[in-house]
């Protein structure tokens, strides 16, 4: 019986030691991919006719503003605002006007003012080559 007790005791101790080594909590890596996608819900007007679109990337947002400026250059009056950041108009109206002959500057200014919650209107004067950009909250 002594011969049997030692191997059984040794086996029990080794089993406990082995079980103790396997008690780690295994954390599986997350398979979800987080994307930083800018989604903008835009309301825009072309010559007084209202439209709505959802823009899902910064690249498409820049294309949209380029399109608005192109329409203004063709003689249309365009305005647009981001529904998600647009400041509801109250009793006081903040109006900021920016005039430039540089299409890129008109684009950047319009982008910045829209992101700050303003409704931006763009017109183009072909005689002077000036873009007049007006932001209203």
Could you please describe the fold and organization of this structure?
There is one protein chain. By secondary structure, this protein is of the alpha+beta class. It is built from three helices and six strands; from the N terminus they run H-E-E-H-E-E-H-E-E. A hairpin with a 2-residue loop joins strand 1 (about 40-45) and strand 2 (about 50-55). The radius of gyration is 32 Å and the shape is elongated. The mean pLDDT is about 80.
Counting DSSP E segments of at least 2 residues, the number of strands comes to 6
Helical run tally: 3
Q: What is the helix fraction of residues, given as a range? A: 25-40%
* Poorly predicted sequence stretches spanning 5 or more consecutive residues: none
* Largest beta sheet: strand ordering: 2-1-3-5-6-4
Largest sheet: 6 strands, antiparallel
3D shape: elongated
Cα end-to-end separation: 94 Å
Order of helices and strands: HEEHEEHEE
Q: What is the percentage of strand-forming residues?
A: 25-35%
Structural class: alpha+beta
Gyration radius (Cα, Å) is 32 Å
The average pLDDT is 82
């Amino acid at each position: 019986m002594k011969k049997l007790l030692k191997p059984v005791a040794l086996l029990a101790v080794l089993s406990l030691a082995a079980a103790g080594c396997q008690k780690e909590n295994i954390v599986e890596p997350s398979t979800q991919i987080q994307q930083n996608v800018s989604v903008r819900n835009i309301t825009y007007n072309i010559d007084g006719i209202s439209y709505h679109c959802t823009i899902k990337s910064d690249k498409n947002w820049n294309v949209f503003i380029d399109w608005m400026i192109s329409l203004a250059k063709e003689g249309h009056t365009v305005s647009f605002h981001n529904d998600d950041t647009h400041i509801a108009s109250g009793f006081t109206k903040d109006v900021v006007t920016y005039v430039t002959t540089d299409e890129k500057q008109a684009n950047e200014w319009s982008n910045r003012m829209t992101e700050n919650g303003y409704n931006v209107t763009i017109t183009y004067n072909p005689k002077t080559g000036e873009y007049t950009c007006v932001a209203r909250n």
